[in-house]
Write a structure and sequence with these properties.
Layout lengths: L8 H59 L8 H28 L6 H25 L35
């Protein structure tokens, strides 16, 4: 696989990998606490809450990574924003449907479910902060510097612009 020319790609990939590992650890903790508080209902509530938090927060990073595949395309900006906005709309729609479906389920412990989602979001924000603080990204990136024009003479002077006087050089 070739590396992406977009400088944010390694940061987003690392964020997704670290978030997945942190979510796995948090799922074990939330499931264990949920089981201790409310038995099997608490276990499933904790696991599902952390899974949903990771899934919904991962959609944004995933959509940006997906959109970066078109970097350099003439309509890259339009594609980028369409894909990212589409991801956010997908997230909103799926979130509403999941919350409506899960709200009336007898096997969901509402407090454990809510607290595990909040813990998952907080953990994801901490992971994002740590990854961004550790990554080195130049202040100016994703640009091409001008190169020497092959029509320049040996002294580094370019061709005279049409209509320019000899004294202007």
């Amino acid at each position: 696989m070739t590396s992406s020319p977009v400088s944010s790609t390694p940061i987003l990939r690392r964020t997704l990998v670290w978030s997945a590992g942190a979510a796995l650890v948090l799922a074990l903790i939330a499931g264990g606490i949920g089981y201790g508080v409310d038995g099997a209902s608490g276990l499933w509530s904790g696991l599902i809450g952390v899974l949903l938090a990771f899934l919904f927060l991962g959609i944004t990073a995933g959509s940006i990574l997906f959109a970066n595949r078109w970097f350099g395309d003439p309509i890259y900006v339009q594609l980028f924003f369409a894909i990212v906005l589409g991801g956010w709309l997908l997230k909103l729609g799926v979130f509403l449907v999941v919350m409506i479906v899960l709200s009336g389920q007898p096997w969901i412990s509402p407090l454990v479910f809510f607290l595990s989602i909040v813990a998952g979001v907080a953990l994801s924000l901490v992971v994002d902060m740590i990854v961004l603080m550790r990554m080195r990204l130049p202040n100016v990136s994703d640009i091409d510097l001008p190169t020497v024009n092959p029509e320049d003479d040996a002294e580094g002077r370019g061709r005279q612009a049409p209509g320019a006087a000899e004294e202007d050089r």
